[in-house]
Design brief:
Chains A, B: Its main location: membrane. The structure is a homodimer of 352-residue chains. Chain A has twelve helices and no strands. By secondary structure, chain A is mainly α. Chain A folds into two domains: 71 residues, no CATH class; 181 residues, Helix Hairpins.
Chain lengths: 352, 352
């Protein structure tokens, strides 16, 4: 079945041109939707009760206040509006240079706490244009910086292995992933320690704040630099917060660069490979003997570097291998083996 | 200077192994930092005045209220806390299934409005684990779906060109970028029309909301489904909101897939090319004549498909070309031209 599937991909004039990519995309959509359903159910179970209890408590307190002070309904609504609008001001001036810089960071990194949001229409318009340019710039910068960090870490690890006198000093992807994971956890813990000290939060809440910030979710339930006018009165702490966010995003970016980036291009690589296969077959005139690469393209790519045992090809019991194949890049058909040694594997993503 | 730079890259045992990548990364950091400074200055100019005026107005109103009702300071602070905590409840139950699903979407897409945030510690912990798995899953899904969308659009455009009787039916990258841009604007406008109708916002505010949502910034200053208990009383509108967010993110994802994704892998591709160059040179024994590919690797890659005019090579006036080169993939050294036609350009990113 395996051979037949990839053979179908390479047949000239085939209508369902990209079965692998479509199956992969459809599976991902299904996965994500199921993930949302499961998450919704769990959050419901965890938070609903507490929400009801808290609501009842607040309603009680509100009735007490209204009885004590005898507000008119309009006055109470006015008071509510007043308190809600005054809240951001309580944390100090949000739009002086330090505050604006903080805001600009939350825009281009897409963290978007919302502790401050443009009040004027001109501010909203500028915010949108600022984001259009700034977000791609930031994406590329953090990926670039993250890749450099990975190269540095790989080099350091190699030196470490050499110093430790290990026999094999080659740094594997597993090594890199473990180090990346530890770096992320370390960065979060370091931030948690710092912010719990400066903001007066518990360690757990500060850790949660760092996590929500560095994943760029940015709820805004916890926001640094909002206490005691820190934005204007504590410049070293302000600088630390900014640097922490930018460094932390680099570490996360490096980890994503290592682990996730290759999956973002699977469909495109398979498309290209399919297109090559079809183009290669089109150059065959009827009656011509097929060259090795075309023979392979017609019958289905032989696994040149994939670890699929040959005995598996075509057997029904190999659905597991097909599933794995769905989420890795398709193997490239071997071309003119004489050149293999001097050529890179054309489209295989390698971790750096 | 151009030849000398790339030659330096390929020299065996060269200490500064990746000048291009380091220069690129450093330039990006400098760019981003300058961008933040400029943004901060503009936001300061746009928002500071309004902030001061609004603060004075609110303080006035507060004094009026305190004089009218004669609050004790503790009572007023208590009232403030009460109003702030009661605010999320005013929009209705946030953690029933529909609300939790909405919240789960804001987590895995990293929008993170913050209109609802886990109140319990268990909710916070689950939220973090939920995000760790959900965010990469969502990234990959949207890129996959976006790539499929790009393929479909490309095919449609080709059919359109054919029907319109155009001579050249090939769909260029420029065509795709224009269509992608129009799709993004169209999606935003459509959402703005819908949300301004359902939420009672102005068209501009609804557009701003859609923009902030689909870029995943998610301030939370405008949040859909918070009026009149829409989460529980208007299921079709709820379904529309969810679908809009997911479809909109796909359209944005497709555009990013087309325009930005290739830049995320520039450093890695250059690293690989440099490594090949060095590996290729190491196989040369002293006294051996260099093969064409090695000769090229030693002297610096000749532009095989780059549009840099030959007369430019080495001239001082070509700093512009060098700048362009910094932000595109390095050209690959031509290898055994006989194979060029049947080989893909090894590492050139092509838009799909």
């Amino acid at each position: 079945r395996e051979l037949r599937t990839t053979g179908r991909q390479a047949r000239v004039g085939d209508r369902s041109r990209s079965p692998r990519q479509n199956v992969r995309t459809a599976s991902l959509i299904l996965c994500t939707f199921s993930y949302l359903l499961v998450g919704a159910a769990v959050f419901d179970a965890l938070e609903s009760e507490t929400e009801s209890a808290r609501k009842r408590l607040l309603e009680q307190k509100r009735s007490e206040f209204r009885r004590k002070y005898r507000f008119s309904p309009e006055d109470y609504r006015e008071l509510e509006r007043l308190v809600l609008q005054a809240e951001p001001h309580r944390a100090g001036r949000q739009w002086k240079f330090a505050g604006s810089f903080y805001f600009a960071i939350t825009v281009i990194t897409t963290i978007g706490y919302g502790h401050a949001a443009p009040g004027t229409d001109a501010g909203k318009i500028f915010c949108m244009f600022y984001a259009i340019l700034g977000i791609p710039l930031t994406l590329v910068t953090f990926q670039s910086l993250g890749e450099r960090m990975n190269v540095l870490v790989r080099w350091l690890l190699q030196r470490l292995k050499r110093c430790a006198g290990l026999r094999r000093t080659q740094v594997s992807t597993e090594n890199m992933v473990v180090v990346g994971l530890l770096s992320c956890l370390g960065t979060l813990a370091m931030g948690a320690a710092a912010f719990s000290h400066f903001e007066g939060w518990t360690f757990f809440h500060a850790y949660y704040y760092c996590f929500i910030t560095l994943t760029t979710i940015g709820f805004g339930d916890f926001v640094a630099l909002q206490r005691d006018e820190a934005l204007h009165k504590r410049p070293p702490y302000v600088a630390f917060s900014f640097l922490y966010i930018l460094l932390g995003l680099t570490v996360i970016g490096a980890f994503l660069n290592l682990v996730v980036l290759r999956f973002l291009t699977l469909n495109a690589e398979d498309e290209r490979r399919d297109a090559e296969g079809r183009a290669s077959l089109r150059r065959v005139r009827p009656g011509d003997p097929l060259r090795p690469s075309q023979e392979v393209a017609r019958c289905g790519a032989l696994p040149s570097r994939d670890p699929i045992p040959f005995s598996c090809l075509g057997a029904r019991s190999c659905s597991r291998w097909k599933l794995i194949r769905l989420f890795t890049a398709a193997p490239s058909p071997p071309r003119l083996h004489l050149q293999i040694l001097s050529l890179p594997h054309p489209l295989r993503r390698k971790a750096i």
